[in-house]
Amino acid sequence: MNTKIFVIANQKGGVGKTTNTIHVASALAEQGKKCLIIDLDDSAGATTTLGVPTTGWDTIYEVITGEVSVEEAIIKDDDQEVRLPKNIHFIPASPRLNDLDSFLNRSENLGIVAQDLLLNPMAELRGKYDYVFLDSPPLVTKMTFPAYKVADYAILSTQLEKLSFERLESAMKLIVSANKNGNSKLSLIGILVTMVPQPITRLATHYLDLIDQTYLSEAREPYRFNAVVHRNVAIQEAATAKVTLFEYQPDHRVNASYRAIAKDIEERIRRIKNNQPSRIQQVANG
């Protein structure tokens, strides 16, 4: 099994990273792909959205500090206490991620390189999943760059507003930094626009155009996925019910957007694998 690792990012909160992580994974899982989601945010957004308790479980904190193996921390889709969608496994986050500085500053841990915290766990997971999704924190924390350091691809999540658009540049700089500092394979695979108003406003149209004009490959192709995710109350209702929208309302049109994005992701990966000219390769080399 050729595992593909994704970091879902934007250095701003509230832009749909967790929603996109869960639902892109769900769209792929629906097609029989085996997916693992790892919550790297100390606020535990993906953890609570999927109805996983934030205490009483091994988390990504215990994995990166060596208290448990990555296999021991995985909650599987046949678990009797946490109901996960079929083909989706999960490693929860913990508020203890806030304590990483203290962990790294202990005398016995001074030799640990912070940016390499995820290298060994991800190496152990390769070959066991089709896709691994890293739900990254909104701010730059001790878990931000480690996610970029181990990922094969980045998906940047954004809203159509000023601050969210501006923070895309920060995320792009992290991709470039990862390319220069140990992860030359990391590529931007796409920009996912979420919470698009209906009907679309003049301001939203402005930022949609700005994304397409600003983030282009050398071939002048936009990185943005053609499908966008419209703002809809059903997404919040599903989150309140601790289920995905695929479970809550399978025929909802937002799910159709995520299915189209998942199909686009697989097509872009196929083009890379076949060494065909693509916007993705040009990002890596740009």
Shape: globular
Number of helices: 13
The structure class reads alpha/beta
Mean pLDDT: 91
Extended strand count: 6
How many domains, as an integer? 1
CATH class descriptor: Alpha Beta
Q: How are the strands of the largest sheet arranged?
A: 3-2-4-1-5-6
Low-confidence stretches: 277-286
**What's the helix-strand series?**
EHEHHHEHHEHEHEHHHHH
What is the CATH topology classification name?
Rossmann fold
In CATH, the homologous superfamily goes by the name P-loop containing nucleotide triphosphate hydrolases
Largest sheet: 6 strands, parallel
Give the strand content.
5-15%
The Rg value, from CA coordinates, equals 18 Å
Cα distance spanning the termini: 29 Å
User: Into which percent range does the helicity of residues fall?
Assistant: 40-55%
Keywords, please?
13 helices, Rossmann fold, 286 residues, alpha/beta, 12% strand, disordered C terminus, six-stranded parallel sheet
Structure description:
Helices cover 42% and strands 12% of the residues. With 286 residues, it is of the alpha/beta class. The protein has one domain (4-285): Rossmann fold (3-Layer(aba) Sandwich). Strands 3-2-4-1-5-6 form a six-stranded parallel β-sheet, with helices on both faces. Strand 5 (153-158), helix 8 (162-180) and strand 6 form a beta-alpha-beta unit. Helix 1 packs across helix 12. It starts with a strand and ends with a helix. Mean pLDDT is 91; it is low at 277-286.
SSE map:
Layout: E1 4-9, H1 17-30, E2 35-39, H2 45-49, H3 60-64, H4 70-73, E3 88-91, H5 100-105, H6 119-125, E4 131-135, H7 144-150, E5 153-158, H8 162-180, E6 187-193, H9 202-214, H10 233-240, H11 245-248, H12 253-273, H13 279-285
Parallel strand pairs: 1-4, 1-5, 2-3, 2-4, 5-6
Helix pairs in contact: 1-12
